[in-house]
Design brief:
Radius of gyration: 19 Å
Structural class: mainly alpha
Largest sheet: none
Shape: globular
Helix content: over 70%
Number of helices: 7
Number of strands: 0
Order of helices and strands: HHHHHHH
Distance between the termini: 39 Å
């Protein structure tokens, strides 16, 4: 089942328009997440029947990535929680999803700081990047759990 290819260029133009309206650099977003775009290009360019359908599907996927990055980095977690509650999700599920989405920018900023520190030491390996980031994420989760427990949050 291929992704809808006819609307791919329109969808991509819509994503670019939203980035322009939000005042966010699309080039910076692509450069910061270039591995995602390169990986998806290799997957879609070589695993579909024709190169044209692979390119259309790649454009469609890039548009989805760009729009999801835009959503995550411009929407406050409280708004996400309110929208999920309006859709009828239980309070705990809405809180869990909004907290997970809110953790993405934190994860990215922490990874950027660790990457800069590792590059200053001359290391470009992936493992020295992953371990400190995971450690800080688990520490943040532990602090959040303690905070929720002290405030009487019951699932």
């Amino acid at each position: 089942a291929a992704l809808p290819s006819f609307y791919s260029p329109l969808f991509f133009a819509f994503a670019i328009l939203l980035y322009l309206l939000a005042g966010i650099s699309i080039a910076r977003t692509v450069m910061e997440h270039k591995l995602v775009f390169i990986f998806s290009l290799t997957v879609f360019a070589f695993h579909f029947g024709s190169p044209a359908s692979g390119v259309y599907n790649y454009i469609y996927l890039c548009s989805l990535f760009l729009l999801s990055f835009l959503f995550v980095f411009t929407t406050p977690p409280a708004e996400i929680n309110r929208a999920l509650r309006a859709f009828g999700l239980p309070k705990t599920t809405a809180f869990m999803l909004s907290t997970a989405i809110a953790s993405i920018p934190y994860f990215e900023s922490k990874a950027r700081k660790v990457r800069i520190a590792q590059a200053a030491r001359g290391s470009h390996a992936v493992l020295p990047l992953i371990l400190p980031v995971l450690h800080s994420l688990f520490a943040r989760a532990r602090k959040l759990a303690i905070s929720l427990e002290t405030r009487g949050f019951r699932p």
